[in-house]
Design brief:
The structure holds two protein chains of two kinds. Chain A is α/β, with parallel strands linked by helices. Helix content of chain A is 62%, strand content 8%. In chain A, the strands form three sheets. Chain A has a six-stranded mixed beta sheet, sandwiched between helices. Chain B is mainly beta. In chain B, a hairpin with a 2-residue loop joins strand 4 and strand 5. Chain B has a six-stranded antiparallel beta sheet with strand order 1-6-2-3-4-5. Classes of the chains: A alpha/beta, B mainly beta. Chains A and B meet through helix 3, helix 8, strand 8, helix 9 and helix 13 of A and helix 1, strand 3, strand 4 and strand 5 of B.
Chain lengths: 636, 86
Amino acid sequence: MKQKALHNPDKTVALLGNPNVGKSTVFNSLTGLNQHTGNWPGKTVESAYGIYTYRQKKFALIDLPGTYSLVPHSAEEEVSRDYILCENPDAVIVVCDATCLERNLNLLLQTMEISPRVVLCLNLMDEAKRKGVYIDTKALSRRLGIPVIPTTARKKQGLTELKEQVDKICCGNGTVKVPGSLRDILDQKGYSGATCGDAAVTDLYREAEEICKETVRFQGVPPYEKGLTADRFLTGKWTGIPTMLILLLFVLWLTIFGANYPSQLLSRLLFSLEEPLYSLLSALSLPDFLIKPLVFGMYRVLAWVVAVMLPPMAIFFPLFSLLEDLGYLPRVAFNLDGCFQKCNACGKQALTMCMGFGCNAVGVTGCRIIDSPRERLIAILTNCFVPCNGRFPTLISIITMFFIVGSGGALSSFLSALCLTLVILAGIGMTFLCSKILSKTLLSGLPSSFTMELPPYRPPQVGKILVRSLLDRTLFVLGRAVSVAAPAGLVLYLLANVTLGGASLLSHLAVLLDPFARLFGMDGIILTAFILGFPANEIVLPIAVMAYLSQGTLTELGDITALRQILVDNGWTQLTALCTMTFSLMHWPCSTTLLSIRKETGSTKWTVLGFLIPTLAGFTLCFLIANGYRLLSLML
Amino acid sequence: MKTQGLHLLTPGAEGIVYALYAEGSIRRRLLDMGLTEGCHVRCLLESPGSDMRAYLIRGALVSIRKKDAEKILIYLPEQEDEEGRT
């Protein structure tokens, strides 16, 4: 693995566990590192490490990938098994879900076959109590021969005892479990064959069953019944998909409505700082030709991006994280798997699509949760049909300006949300279409099998999520604004004000692209804006607006009617708006996403395709819309 | 012993695993999830398109596609539920 040599720890401890047992929470609580915890399987695909101190000793804690077994038939299992066998940590903590002990014991028993110093961290004890699951931890400890520590990591209960037991076991020799039939398989290098280990796993589960019979008692309603009514509703034949749509609509509506006022405030504030900034720079005796690009180019675009992007992101992300933490998203994959099956793709693509809402680069990286390489590629290449947070403000602005009448009250926000939902549905529809086409042409193959755990609903840690999400997103938007939007603003100012042969570079470019763009219902400036928006999607609209104003500067955003006027004055019609929205939805991925595609696929060929597929889709659709509309208006 | 495919188990019904005919990675995955011989399985949910069902396997809810469930043979229990309930 990586790193820890730098910190020179006294002891090294490995952290192992099934997905969804709160392993990351245990990790964060022990080390204080801020790692995002989600409530769906396979999320922790990379390992991480942290340090904690106990009794003046430094412990390095390695967070191994969540896995159901150590028999290596996937990369995650191999990493975990290899680490324990080869690096020989001083202790291994196996985190188990107290509400689902029988299944979790499989991993514990396997770990005990290859490591002598194992500690069982029985997590989610509060959930167990809530569901009437009672575990005799002393009997369990006797039966297993290892320390068993009940914890509720999210309430920070039991952690000191855990640290104590880990400390004790690191210093001792530990007990070696009599190696079972799995030992030989676990000892092999590389992946093991497909069917070997069947009997061994069956034996382990038989043992797990016996252990649980002796130590676990259920009281009252069986644990699986809690949440079953909710699940039946959320996955029901007539209720499942409508609920999904309504939830999406609701989240979008809250985002649009809630972001309205803060956006206006922010933009007024940031634009009001322009004058003082100008004066300040002048007072520093900087030459005018330097100040103008900095203030009217760099700062203005930065101000726009922050004002327009921050409020929606600050609302959308926490809402999304709440749903994630609750455990709802695997139900989405469950509902949509049928559609993905018909496209010969994997149901987990629903999850990567959801990730793409936040950021397409994250969605692409998240495709690692898909096992089959073929299906993973399909998910990667179609991820940017789902609009990321950077495109939301562009879409919302255009919808508000050209398709909704009304001022920003609850009703018009609702209608905007409705339109945005329709746009997103169009994107999802295109995802299915392209997935199907890809699976019949370039990426054809048999549909692979798919199975997924649906974790129980857990009450989301609302306060923690709101705070973390808010902080996260604010920093992210500001960071992006400074690193991408500001330089882009500078470049744009230069392009708009540096003249060559009587016209600015920008107008040359726009004039060049104009005839081509008109074929697709847009104009040269819009297309230029999309091209210049390659580094980040959020700067597309500011670039377009800035380009329209002949000096290439941006007037205050606060008034959306003024903005609309600028666009209308430059020839925008509803058709232009529609085509621009369509192209915003379907065009080349931003630079970060493209880099992620390159990194995940390791191939230039697929990266190029990742560039071409949404672009071709966008151009085709815009062509059909624009010319279909023109044809119709000619005939009628 | 009369066996049938898991896919014939409707929501609410219960069965016991007789054998797994699935091959490859899905077999491993199902075994890892605890779907071994003699394991109790209860069907709890069905997806809107009826192409996927969720089953209770050793205390966890696991979704399995219909075509994969066809390769899992179960038999119906003669007696009632799990022991250990107070």
